């Protein structure tokens, strides 16, 4: 649920960056990622991993941002693997070819989510 809500926080932060702050798309995306990741960290710290040991906030936030960035890379890699490699591995019927990019997004999201949860559980909120 936290990740789902964070998607909308991310979109809202991107809109704010582009329309109110005047950042370009790429800098705005970095801004929105940091806002959404910070929101996710706060929620995980206070809701999901309530019993995590006490640690400096900045250190924990930094680790969370770092590992979630790796999770984003995992997400992108799985997306490319499914969309590009699987897409070019065979001649798919048009119905399958039409949904393959969305299937790739789902696979990438699931793998990134799994990585981020496990990294948070074992490496960030110990």
UniProtKB/TrEMBL annotation:
Pfam families recorded: GtrA_DPMS_TM (PF04138)
Entry GO terms, CC: plasma membrane
GtrA/DPMS transmembrane domain ranges (all copies): 1-125
Keyword Membrane among record annotations: yes
Keywords (A to Z) from UniProt: Membrane, Transmembrane, Transmembrane helix
Record has Transferase as a keyword: no
Membrane-spanning ranges: 20-43, 64-84, 96-119
Major subcellular site: membrane
InterPro entries hit by this protein: GtrA_CellWall_Glycosyl, GtrA_DPMS_TM
Membrane topology, from the record: Multi-pass membrane protein
Segment forming the signal sequence: none
Biological process annotations from GO: polysaccharide biosynthetic process
Subcellular location: Membrane
Family to which this protein belongs: Belongs to the GtrA family.
The protein's name: GtrA-like protein
